[in-house]
């Protein structure tokens, strides 16, 4: 499966995908990484692993539409079949999504629909929930609310702050995001409206 990954920052989820591919756990190839941030540490990770990375910044374009269309074009040129948002800090509109229908996925550090948007782990600590986690979902035009593919649950402990909770959640992000890429590679993802079924999944 040919994939593209969109990043804006640290890139630890990108690293998890690279590692899973290199170890043969995921049958995919990263055709292109796009960073909208020239300072993203994710770019260094690409260099280290010989993954092609392009910096495409919003400010290079007169409109969001042109920015999104350029990103889509670059991905299409590489034959990308699945787009993975891994800490990509921008909201994608129809002008991007129309090129990859039901083939854009995102990792979000909460059990959606709880705590959408920014600082999900802080929101969870402040709300006082006893469990949180992470979600891989299909990206549609809603923000952090598209059809759920898989979630992992972690406890929120009394002594947690947003950082300790974020660390606990991140370990699971690094498992369920590569796992989801592998399910797509195996053609096991069936989307029926809001319901996503993973063929032959054992839970
Ligand atoms: C992760 O917590 C992810 O869930 C959220 O942004 C963060 C990105 O981290 N969408 P990294 O860049 O993959 O290290």
Automatic annotation (TrEMBL):
The keyword DNA repair does not apply. The record marks 144 as: Raises pKa of active site His. Residues 2-181 form the Formyl transferase N-terminal domain. N(1)-(5-phospho-beta-D-ribosyl)glycinamide binds at residues 11-13. One of its GO terms (cellular component) is cytoplasm. Pfam families: Formyl_trans_N. Keywords: Purine biosynthesis, Transferase. GO terms for biological process: 'de novo' IMP biosynthetic process. The active site is at residue 108. Belongs to the GART family. Catalyzes the transfer of a formyl group from 10-formyltetrahydrofolate to 5-phospho-ribosyl-glycinamide (GAR), producing 5-phospho-ribosyl-N-formylglycinamide (FGAR) and tetrahydrofolate. This is Phosphoribosylglycinamide formyltransferase. It comes from Aquifex aeolicus (strain VF5). The lineage of its organism: Bacteria, Pseudomonadati, Aquificota, Aquificia, Aquificales.
């Amino acid at each position: 499966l040919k994939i593209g990954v969109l990043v804006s920052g640290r890139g630890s989820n990108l690293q998890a995908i690279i590692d899973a591919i290199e170890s043969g756990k995921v049958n995919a190839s990263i055709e292109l990484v796009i960073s909208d941030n020239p300072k993203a540490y994710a770019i260094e990770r690409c260099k280290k692993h010989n993954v092609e990375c392009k910096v495409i910044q919003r400010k290079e374009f007169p409109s969001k539409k042109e920015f999104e269309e350029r990103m889509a074009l670059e991905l299409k040129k590489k034959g990308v079949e699945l787009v993975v948002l891994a800490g990509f800090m921008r909201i994608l509109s129809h002008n991007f999504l129309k090129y990859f229908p039901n083939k854009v996925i995102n990792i979000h550090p909460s059990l959606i629909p709880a705590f959408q948007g920014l600082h999900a782990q802080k929101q969870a600590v402040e709300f006082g929930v006893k469990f949180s986690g992470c979600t891989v979902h299909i990206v549609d035009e809603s923000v952090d609310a598209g059809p759920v593919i898989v979630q992992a649950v972690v406890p929120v402990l009394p002594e947690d702050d947003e950082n300790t909770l974020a660390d606990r959640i991140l370990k699971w992000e690094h498992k369920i995001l590569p796992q989801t890429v592998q399910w797509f590679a195996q053609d096991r993802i069936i989307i029926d409206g809001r319901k996503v079924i993973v063929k032959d999944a054992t839970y």
